[in-house]
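User: My collaborator sent over this chain with a note saying "see what the structure looks like." That's all I know about it. Can you take a look?
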Amino acid sequence: MEHLLEQKLSILSVVEDTTVDGPGFRTAIYGAGCSHHCLGCHNPQSWELNNGTLMSVGELLQIVLADEFADVTFTGGDPFFQVEGFAALAKAIKQNSSKTIWCYTGYTIEQLMANPRFMPLLSLIDVLVDGPFIEALRTEEFLFRGSSNQRILKVKDIFFSSISILCLPMVERRFFRMVSKVEFENHSPNVAMTKRVVASPPILY
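Assistant: Without extra context I'll predict from the sequence alone. Here is the result:
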């Protein structure tokens, strides 16, 4: 545990009690570094890893635990740019609290699941907001998203049953093969998406 808490992350800022990065009050942790470089990005200074300040997992955990009522959001930048550090932070949060973790990423869920390196972080996230910001699809109509291509996904549903896509105007639920609990917890590279089938409307958030 001590080694876990000593890991360092490059952090742009920590915003406490925000209500715009997921439901309810949340502690939003903005990680530096992003390789997507989306046209029209509202935070291009977040692309460079060196633009952040080094903070340890232990320091960030103290901030998160100090707010009894707020859950947590990882954003940036792209948290998967510092996947090892954010995985360590997510693990520490889960070991010390019952807080939910939302995570914003420019990757799609399909891309994340195809890369075993991302699994330690992905497996600890409760809700993923996936996909790059696309300026042509920019919208203010939907909560917690910048463009209409982005999806709000219950991560564990992907592994154990189906994706629950939690936002309008999506009108499909995509089913994936079920994987074992052992595969999921061990971040097996065999946990990968298979053929998708359009079925009934999604469970809505």
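A starting point for your reply to your collaborator: Residues 162-185, 188-205 have pLDDT under 50 and may be disordered.
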